[in-house]
Amino acid sequence: MTTAVVLLSGGLDSTTTLAIARRDHVVHAMSFRYGQRHGPEIEAARKAAERFDVARHVIVDIDLRVFGGSALTADIDVPKDRTAAEMSASIPVTYVPARNTIFLSYALALAEVVAARDIFIGVNAVDYSGYPDCRPEYIESFERTANLGTRGGVEGTNPISIRAPLMRMTKAEIIRTGVALGVAYDETISCYDSATDGRACGRCDACQLRRKGFAEAGMPDPTRYA
User: Fold this and answer.
1) Overall pTM > 0.90
2) Helix, strand, coil distribution of the chain in percent, nearest 5
3) Which residue, of 3, 65, 92, 121, has the greatest Cβ tally within 10 A?
4) Does residue 36 contact residue 59 with C-beta atoms inside 8 Å?
5) Are 214 and 175 a contacting pair, CB within 8 Å?
6) Alpha helices of 22-170 — where are they, by DSSP H?
7) β-pairing, 56-61 with 25-33?
8) Per-residue burial over 98-122, b = 16 or more CB atoms within 10 Å of its CB, e = otherwise
9) Per-residue pLDDT tens over the stretch 56-74
10) Where does residue 11 rank: exposed (0-12), middle (13-18), buried (19+ CB within 10 A)?
C-alpha cells in the first residue's frame, strides 16, 4: 500500500473520504482544533481514525479565532432554516477564511515527512454550502502550488496529488459509498452549531444537507438532533 495523508474533521464527508483512502493506502490522518464552535467533531474524528486503523492520527492546535470573520470562529450567529435558494445565493458567513488552504498546507508538510504522494480532502461541489475553497479549480491550483513548493515536487522524487474523491458526488451518493465501506455515520458530526454533547441543531445548512442526503439515499438518518 502507498502512503496518504487524509484531512479528517469527523464529519460525514471527511469520514467517507477516509474510508475511501483506506482501501489502498496506509493513512496518516490529520485533524484540527482551530477554535471552531463545533468542538465535538474532534472526538468524532478520533473514533473514525480508530475504526479505520490509521497509522497515525495527528491533531493540530491552531487558533483561527485570531482572525475571526466566520460564524464558526467568532461571535456571529450561524444561519438557520435557510432555503436551498438562499444557500446557493452567496458565500455564507460559516465560511472560514482560507481554512482549506491552511489545512492543506499542514497536510502537505506532513506528506513531505512521511513520503506520502496523495493528500485526501473531502470537499464537494454538488451538495455543499458554496465555499470557494471546495471547488475543483481551487484543488487543481493547490496541487500545482504543492509541486512547485516542495522538495519532492521540484526534484520529481515525490510529486503530490490532491485527491478529492467526493467532488462530483451528491450527498446521497456519498452516504451510499460510505455505508458500503463501513462508515458509522451515527459517530460523525456535520452540524455547524452542535451542542456540547454532539447533538446536532438540525437547522443549519450542514444539517439540512445531511438530512436531504439520507432521505435521497433512502436510508434512516442516525444523527442525534437536539
Assistant:
1) yes
2) 40, 15, 45
3) 121
4) no
5) yes
6) 41-51, 84-89, 99-114, 136-148, 151-155
7) parallel
8) ebbebbbebbbebbbeeebbbbbbb
9) 999 999 999 999 999 999 9
10) buried
Report yes or no: 113 and 104 within 8 Å, Cβ to Cβ.
no
- Rounded to the nearest angstrom, the gap between the alpha carbon of residue 208 and the centroid of all alpha carbons in its chain is 17
Average pLDDT score over the chain: 95
Distance CA 189, CA 203 (A): 14
Rg (the chain; Cα; Å): 17
Cell readout for 138 is 481551487
Strand ranges of the sheet holding 161-163, from the earlier edge strand across to the other edge: 56-61, 25-33, 2-7, 118-120, 161-163
In the structure grid, which three cell numbers stand for residue 213, read together?
442526503
